[in-house]
């Protein structure tokens, strides 16, 4: 059994009305440098989104969240960002933005299974 690996993660937030600074957690991006792991998981609670903004464009939000998952996977259909090394993609995805899709500050953890850590954070921070 090997020692625990260090990973970085950020929570993906949907901020339907940026001027109000209200948000809901919609997903997680997790990267483990030693293993080359980069993956995102999303679980948008549409009811909570519409409670914050009844006029939110749910289809567009889903499309943008799906793009994050595809960028993490290196999907060639996502353009030149998807071709960057995985750590550069992680840093690009977690850069500060003032937009409807934002990320939390990057946090660090330790695990022996990055995919299990991603699911654990999703359960703790995103899923109800």
Short synopsis of the structure:
By secondary structure, the protein is an alpha+beta fold. 34% of the residues lie in helices and 26% in strands.
Distance between the termini: 33 Å
Strand content: 25-35%
Helical percentage: 25-40%
Q: What is the string of helix and strand elements?
A: EEEHHHEEH
Q: How many beta-strand runs?
A: 5
Oligomer: single chain
Unreliably modeled segments: none
Polypeptide structure, described:
The protein is built from 4 helices and 5 strands, in the order E-E-E-H-H-H-E-E-H. It has helices spanning 46-52, 58-73, 86-93, 114-125; strands spanning 5-14, 24-32, 37-42, 101-103, 107-111. The radius of gyration is 15 Å and the shape is globular. The mean pLDDT is 95.
List strands and helices in order, with pairings:
Elements: E1 5-14, E2 24-32, E3 37-42, H1 46-52, H2 58-73, H3 86-93, E4 101-103, E5 107-111, H4 114-125
Antiparallel strand pairs: 1-2, 1-4, 1-5, 2-3
């Amino acid at each position: 059994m090997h020692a625990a690996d260090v990973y970085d993660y950020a929570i993906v937030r949907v901020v339907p009305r940026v001027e109000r600074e209200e948000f809901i957690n919609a997903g997680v991006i997790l990267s483990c440098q030693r293993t080359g792991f980069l993956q995102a998981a999303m679980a948008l609670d549409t009811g909570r989104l519409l409670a914050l903004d009844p006029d939110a464009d749910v289809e567009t939000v889903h499309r943008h969240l799906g793009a994050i998952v595809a960028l993490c996977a290196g999907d060639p259909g996502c353009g030149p960002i998807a071709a960057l090394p995985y750590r550069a993609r992680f840093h690009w995805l977690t850069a500060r933005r003032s937009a409807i899709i934002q990320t939390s500050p990057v946090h660090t953890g330790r695990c022996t299974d990055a995919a299990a850590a991603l699911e654990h954070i999703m359960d703790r921070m995103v899923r109800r």
